[in-house]
Fold this protein.
Amino acid sequence: MHKNINIISSSVSASATMVPTLSKQPDDDILPETQGSPVNGEAAETFIAEKRIGERIKYLRLKKSMGLVDLGRHTGLSASFLSQLETGRVVPTLRNLARIAMVFSKDLSYFFDPEPQTLFRVHRRGERMRLPQTGVENPSYFFESLGYLVPDRQLDPYFAEFLPTKDGKAPRPHQHAGCEFLYLLTGALDVQHGSATHHIEAGDAIYFDADTTHSYVCAGSSPATALIVTLQNLVMVPIGDGVRVANVVNGRGVRNAAIPILQPASGARKSVARMQ
């Protein structure tokens, strides 16, 4: 015969000394059947422990530079209970977990979803592709994407080499959404931004609105090299009790910041679009 785990969800008052926790009565050893297989209380507690709910709460609290007393003031839970919760000595009820989630603008699913993998990518020098300026017969620069392995990245870093101009040929201007940063490593460069031209030399850095047409011209007899980073415009879009990062092009949100897995070929195509 199956028995149920009772969850105490009593409210916390100003004079209360007890806080709601998951309480397993002595005879509450078995949960209702799940797809025909009984699950005991110990297994359920192990499942909760594996989700590291306490560690996730502590991470959110420290990220906001919030003390236990401050979090208790926002949630109506005592600092001592929150301390035990973070160290795994007690298990929260869904009611208490919801209170904590609301403080940090998170959904309850945040505490149970698989933990995201830390993003780390190495782009080996010998594995990068050297791509020419597109849309012209004789390219004036070549570039290499330094972030093509990063899925749905919000910024694109490049290494670029600008060749000395031939026959005084005018550069081909381009534009794209967001901002652009350029740090000149070697040589000299003339950067046209709108109707203005700016001369920069090795060690100089520029940051500009990439929505305005811009172009680059090597200003010396030797090639110039630069590190370039393009950054999309980002805004915080309210979603229910939380927010989501969205990219904006021409004032319109075009996609959210979810991270699908992209193949390197797709990343390379995306890089070309930014540097053309």
